[in-house]
């Protein structure tokens, strides 16, 4: 009887335990933990980043140089990134970089050594929201219209990357299958990427604005 009661207590305690909250990489107050990536190596060090924080949101600055920001506190792998954002226009030229193997000295490190998960929705099925830019073809295009919040989840498990947008699978790439050859200088170099790396948020200019409400991380259980 004691054993049975003890087992019930263990189950009750387990049920009562709260779930693990995602780690908030963007605190809604400032850019703590983030640093600017110059568009070109050797660019002035004192330039402001391409984003500002206002009313709890991370907001791209059309008036700023095309400088990205990267999360400096750790490399990320075997985890799911959750990005909640909206845009002023479907042409908003932004994205989330993952698997950057080194502390980026310029956007070139992010583009050609990491992977961009695209936000810009204005291209074809290889250049649209939720694809690995120019390397994977969208399985669906569940983008919400400008002004509405989108939720993007980027799951990394070993070399595999899956991307869902508003609950719909857009990308599932095993990390090793062949991808189309590079077609233009603006597309990233091909080749393997690491299982983990730094992440970054892209600011690629233009008149459109991107607002980020959440950038959080849920580690693989």
What does this structure look like?
It is a single chain. β3 (51-54) and β4 form a beta hairpin. The radius of gyration is 19 Å and the shape is globular. It has a single domain (22-219), classed as Exo-inulinase, domain 1 (Jelly Rolls). It contains two helices and 13 strands. Mean pLDDT is 88; it is low at 1-18. With 221 residues, it is mainly beta. It has helices spanning 2-16, 107-113, and strands at residues 23-24, 34-37, 51-54, 57-60, 68-71, 79-87, 95-100, 115-118, 150-157, 160-165, 168-173, 198-201, 210-219. Strands 1, 3, 4, 6, 9, 10, 11 and 13 form an eight-stranded antiparallel sheet that branches. The protein has a five-stranded antiparallel sheet with strand order 2-5-12-7-8, with helices on one face.
